[in-house]
From TrEMBL:
Name of a matching Pfam family: HGTP_anticodon
Keywords annotated in UniProt: Aminoacyl-tRNA synthetase, ATP-binding, Cytoplasm, Ligase, Nucleotide-binding, Protein biosynthesis
GO molecular function: histidine-tRNA ligase activity
Group of enzyme by EC: ligase
Protein name: Histidine--tRNA ligase
Localization, UniProt: Cytoplasm
Domain Aminoacyl-transfer RNA synthetases class-II family profile: 31-381
Subunit composition and interactions: Homodimer.
Family of this protein: Belongs to the class-II aminoacyl-tRNA synthetase family.
CDD domains: HisRS-like_core, HisRS_anticodon
UniProt main location, coarse: cytoplasm
Organism: Labrys monachus
PANTHER family tied to this protein: HISTIDINE--TRNA LIGASE (PTHR11476:SF7), HISTIDYL-TRNA SYNTHETASE (PTHR11476)
Length: 493
C-alpha cells in the first residue's frame, strides 16, 4: 500500500557548518604547511589538544558562565560534569601548560592548528566551525615576545604570497584603554560589564565607524534589520574621550604615542601601556619592520576580556570585488595579544603569555581572491582505463608502477564503457588516461591521452573526422616506457 512507503531521510547540512571539497582541502594543507614553516623558523614546536575541554576550563571565554551552553556547544558526561567543544585554541593551551608546567621549558613556544566551535547565530562569512592556527609564547614577561609575534605575523603573510603593502599588523595595548576607562570612572568590579561592552563596541569600529561606535558607547544601536544592541550607557563626555583615543592614530608611531600620552595622564597602568607600545615600535623598527608592516593603531582592542597588555591584528588592505562587483576588503584575518591571567587561573600565580591566531578559512578566501591559490582546479590522478575485465590485474600493475614512482594513479573500477570512462577521468580532473586494449597489448604498447592538452587542442578542430585523424594529444609508447613517458607528460615534456 502507498501509505506503507518508507519516508526518505532528507539530506541536509547543519546551519553554520560547511562541507569542504578536495580542492579546498588541498589549498588549506598547502597554506597550513607554509604557516608551519614560518613558525618553526622562529623556534616554535607543535602541540595538540583535544576538541573537548571541561567547561570551567574555558573560564572567561564564556559569554555568560551561568549558562554553560551560551556561546559554546556543551553537554554533560555520565558524571554530570559539563564538557564543551573548544571555543578557540588559547584556553586549551592554558590548561595544557598549567597541567604540565614543571615539565615544560620556560618560555614555552608552541603552535597548534585545528577546528574550533562557536554556538552562535550563523550568517554570511560567520560559521559555527572554522579552523585556526595559533602560535603562543608562555613564560616571557617582556614585550619583546609581543614584538616577535608581530614580526612573525608579517613574515607569515609574505610567506603566503601576500605582498608588502597588501597587509599590515596593527598593534595596541589594553593597559592604555584600561587607563582611559579608569580616568572616566569605569574602573572597579562594579563596572566590569560596562567595560566589556565598551571593548566590544570599539572592536566594531572598522565596520560601524565613529557614529556606530558612539551609539554603542551610549544608549545603544539599532542595525539595518531592526535588531537593537544595548550600549554601555556612557555620557557624552565619557564617550568622546573613548572616541578621541580610538581615532588617535597619527602619521608615525611616535606621533600616535605622543597624542595618546595625555589621555592616560595620572593612570599608572595606562602610562605603562604607552611605554610598552613605544618599546614594541622600537624593537620591530630596529629589526627592519617599518610602519608599512607593523604600526601602532589605537582602534585595535580585541573583543575578548582576558587580554592584559599588547593586542594585535593582521589586516589585509587590498581591495577585491564581491559577487555584485562592489569593492570590498577582507579586513582582519589574524589577531591576538597578551593574556597573563589565563594560566594563572589554574596555578594561582602570575604566568605571562602572549600569542596570536590566524583564521585559516578566512585567510584562504582572501588568498583565493588574490589569485594565490585555486580551490577549483585541483589536479586529479592518472586514470588507467579498463578495456577488458579479464585483464584487471594488468591494469592494476600499471597503476602500481606509477604509484611506486610517486605518481598519483587509479584504475577505473566502475562498470561502464570507454566513453563513460573518459568522462569519468575528465570529471576527476585526470591529467592523463592510460589505455591498453587488445591491439595495444598484442604490440606490447600503451596509449596515453593528455586530457588537458587535448581539451585545449580540440577547440580548433571542426568535426569528428578531423578529431580521429589528428589523434589529439595522444601518444602510443612501449609498455616499458609507461612511467617515464607519464612523468615527462606531467612535466610538460
Amino acid at each position: 500500500m502507498a501509505g506503507d512507503k518508507k519516508q526518505k531521510l532528507k539530506a541536509r547540512q547543519a546551519r553554520g557548518f560547511v562541507d569542504r571539497s578536495a580542492g579546498e582541502i588541498a589549498a588549506t594543507r598547502a597554506m597550513v604547511a607554509a604557516i608551519q614553516e614560518v613558525y618553526e623558523l622562529y623556534g616554535f614546536d607543535p602541540v595538540e589538544t583535544p576538541f573537548v575541554e571541561y567547561t570551567d576550563a574555558l573560564g572567561k571565554f564564556l559569554p555568560d558562565q551561568d549558562r554553560p551552553n551560551e556561546g559554546v556547544f556543551s553537554f554533560q558526561d555520565d558524571d554530570e560534569q559539563w564538557l564543551s567543544l573548544r571555543y578557540d585554541l588559547t584556553a586549551p593551551l592554558a590548561r595544557y601548560v598549567a597541567e604540565n608546567f614543571d615539565a615544560l621549558p620556560k618560555p614555552y613556544r608552541s603552535y597548534r592548528a585545528g577546528y574550533v566551535f562557536r554556538n552562535e547565530k550563523p550568517g554570511p562569512g560567520r560559521f559555527r566551525q572554522f579552523m585556526q592556527f595559533d602560535a603562543d609564547t608562555v613564560g616571557a614577561p617582556s614585550v619583546a615576545a609581543d614584538a616577535e609575534i608581530c614580526m612573525m605575523a608579517a613574515d607569515t603573510m609574505e610567506k603566503l604570497g601576500i605582498p608588502r603593502g597588501a597587509y599590515v599588523v596593527r598593534v595596541n595595548n589594553r593597559k592604555v584603554l584600561d587607563g582611559i576607562m579608569e580616568a572616566i570612572g569605569l574602573d572597579g568590579e562594579d563596572n566590569a560589564g560596562r567595560r566589556l561592552t565598551v571593548l566590544r563596541a570599539i572592536d566594531k569600529f572598522d565596520r560601524l565607524g565613529a557614529q556606530g561606535v558612539r551609539d554603542l558607547l551610549g544608549g545603544g544601536r539599532k542595525d539595518e534589520s531592526g535588531d537593537f544592541t544595548k550600549g554601555a550607557g556612557l555620557d557624552d563626555t565619557q564617550a568622546q574621550t573613548i572616541l578621541d583615543y580610538v581615532t588617535g592614530q597619527s602619521g608615525t608611531n611616535a606621533e600616535t604615542l605622543d597624542r595618546v600620552r595625555p589621555l592616560v595622564q595620572g593612570s599608572k597602568g595606562g602610562s605603562e601601556g604607552v611605554e610598552e607600545l613605544a618599546r614594541i615600535a622600537q624593537l620591530v623598527e630596529q629589526s627592519g619592520y617599518g610602519t608599512d608592516r607593523v604600526v601602532i593603531d589605537t582602534s585595535i582592542v580585541r573583543g575578548l576580556e582576558y587580554y592584559t597588555g599588547p593586542v594585535y591584528e593582521v589586516e589585509l588592505t587590498f581591495e577585491v570585488k564581491d559577487e555584485q562587483g562592489r569593492p570590498m576588503r577582507f579586513g582582519s584575518v589574524a589577531g591576538g595579544g597578551r593574556y597573563d591571567g589565563l594560566v594563572a587561573r589554574f596555578r594561582g600565580e602570575p604566568v605571562p603569555a602572549t600569542g596570536f591566531s590566524i583564521g585559516v578559512s578566512r585567510l584562504l578566501s582572501a588568498l583565493t581572491a588574490l589569485g594565490r591559490v585555486d580551490t577549483s582546479n585541483e589536479k586529479g590522478p592518472v586514470v588507467v582505463c579498463v578495456m577488458d575485465q579479464g585483464r584487471l590485474a594488468d591494469y592494476q600493475a600499471m597503476a602500481t608502477e606509477l604509484r611506486q614512482a610517486g605518481i598519483r594513479a587509479e584504475v577505473y573500477l566502475g562498470g561502464s564503457g570507454m566513453k563513460a570512462q573518459l568522462r569519468y577521468a575528465d570529471r576527476r580532473k585526470a591529467p592523463i588516461v592510460v589505455i591498453q586494449g587488445s591491439d595495444e597489448a598484442d604490440k606490447g604498447e600503451v596509449q596515453l591521452k593528455d586530457l588537458a592538452l587535448g581539451a585545449e587542442m580540440a577547440k580548433g578542430i571542426a568535426d569528428n573526422a578531423e578529431w580521429r585523424e589528428a589523434r589529439v594529444a595522444q601518444r602510443q609508447v612501449p609498455r616499458g616506457e609507461l612511467v617515464a613517458t607519464v612523468r615527462a607528460m606531467l612535466a610538460g615534456g
